[in-house]
Amino acid sequence: MDTTMEQASQRLRDQDTLSDISRLKPGWILAFGILLAVLGAFALASVITATIASVYFVAISMVIAGAAHMVMAFQAKSFWSGSTWFLTGIFYSAAGLLASSNPLLAATGLTLLLGIALVASGIVRLVIAFQMRSGTAWGWVVLSALITALLGITVLSQWPASGLYVLGTFLSIDLLFTGASWLALGSALLSRQILSSLVQA
């Protein structure tokens, strides 16, 4: 019963989201998609610059998170809790400032963590896949796990040189795919509007 209610609630949320998107003008959506795709292409042409940009984004996010933690520290009810929040905020802010002061060094460290995370994620998904062998999709899970682990091994095998381009490459690909998805959405909405106007005519 609870599952059915959750599914119905999720469908309503999806419908509201689609309704909100459908109100947007296709021209703006297409322009946004083109902008993201162009930025992705430029980033792919200069992955080192894109890597530095991604490090600055992470650094700014950490500084903001640190400031938020320090503000929350003054809302704590006990000294111990407030001190923990405040020290965590200082740590986040200091890490963000250090990353922004030497983005290439930070990119090298982040790339190392990313490579380890990819390998670990691949191994975990591989174990899960063999535990669900009775399922129909376990082969795809195995393939996905192997690709993820192989990607992590590739990143680690070329480290620390991979720190110069991995984050920038990931950012570029994300921008390109996001731009393509917005272009597809804008094109679909534009086609629907044209078809609707033809029907009304």
Structure report:
- By secondary structure, the chain is mostly helical.
- It has one domain (27-200).
- The chain is 87% helix and 0% strand.
- The chain has helices at residues 2-22, 26-45, 47-73, 79-101, 103-131, 138-157, 166-200.
- It is extended.
- The model has no long low-confidence stretch (mean pLDDT 77).
Quick recap of the structure?
The protein contains seven helices and no strands. With 201 residues, the chain is mainly alpha-helical. The radius of gyration is 23 Å and the shape is extended.
Short descriptors:
201 residues, mainly alpha, extended
Output mean pLDDT.
Answer: 77
Domains, number: 1
Low-confidence stretches: none
| Percent strand | under 5%
Name the shape in a single word. extended
**Elements, N to C (H/E):** HHHHHHH
> What share of the residues lie within helices?
over 70%
Rg calculated over all Cα atoms: 23 Å
Strands, count: 0
**Main sheet?**
none
Structural class: mainly alpha
- Number of H/I helices: 7
What distance separates the N and C termini?
46 Å
Strand-helix topology:
Blueprint lengths: L1 H21 L3 H20 L1 H27 L5 H23 L1 H29 L6 H20 L8 H35 L1
